[in-house]
Amino acid sequence: MAGTMRTDAFDFELPEALIALRPVHPRRSARLLVARPDRIADAHVAALPDLLDPGDLLVFNDTKVIPARLRGARRRASRDGAGFAQIEVTLLARLDTASWRALAKPAKRLSPGDRILFEGLQAEVAERAGGVVVLRFDLTGAALDARIAEIGVMPLPPYIARRRAADARDETDYQTVFARALGSVAAPTASLHFDRTLLDGLAAAGIARTTVTLHVGAGTFLPVTAETLNGHKMHAEWGQVPDSAVAAMQAARARGRRVVPVGTTALRLIETAAAQPGGLASWKGETDIFITPGFNFRAADGLMTNFHLPRSTLMMLVSALMGVERIRAIYAHAIDRRYRFYSYGDASLLLP
User: Fold this and answer.
1) pTM (2 decimals)?
2) CB atoms within 10 A of CB 288
């Protein structure tokens, strides 16, 4: 059974030089590995209109990344006077109009009741459990969102943030051109390859598109530490599949065309919606779907995605789609041909 598979079956060695620290420009000039069951071809994202058939449907995630990393100072009333300590927080999930769950560093310096002073913004520590805190801000709603947008920085993935700080370029680079629904702390990175020129080219080629929303959480970067797949607890993320997306997917299927999600977030979401007792229908809520080898795909006929971290849930997802041995061959080809990996890297088009 897939659940008893060892997680080291999804491990591989990646030369550090292949981890992309910046995206290529223009976005559509990124390389694209095209994998079918019997062959692998090297192309570029700009060729996508020629690689898909008229009537095929691309499903995009229209979530918008919050500049979720904030730096401030703790203020604690003590017998020695006000105690200050530098604190960095990464917002993880909104709890209400004024409260967020956040990752704090160093969290051990925080206790409930402490206040963190940011630039033009304050937050009280309402709870702390390990490295995660609940912050209650002194602004609410749109005013809080606007202030976070002004003072926050893009929460680059750890494998980039360890090697360079986020800067003004990331505010554009780490956001899709169709980002709409504010709520992610990580980008749906396969969609970063699309620009207006490519979207227009796809439309001219008769390739349809629709959007769903899944707010990507920081859990997307967590390694699987359990020895076997069934020992891993999947993180939950909020998403919505609207009626319009369901209608577009049903129309593509009725025409005998393919439904190809762009990114693992879009795939996980439409497979969640398709797993309902009555089949594919509109859906809204939190999904913790964990797609591993042996999974029965009900909605997706393929996937466009970037290259993923070893031993990650996303490596398990693409292995479920293409087969474990096939993905090993695909990744070996990508490493041999010097494809760029991870969030700012190149892409693959997986067509099982």
Assistant:
1) 0.93
2) 12
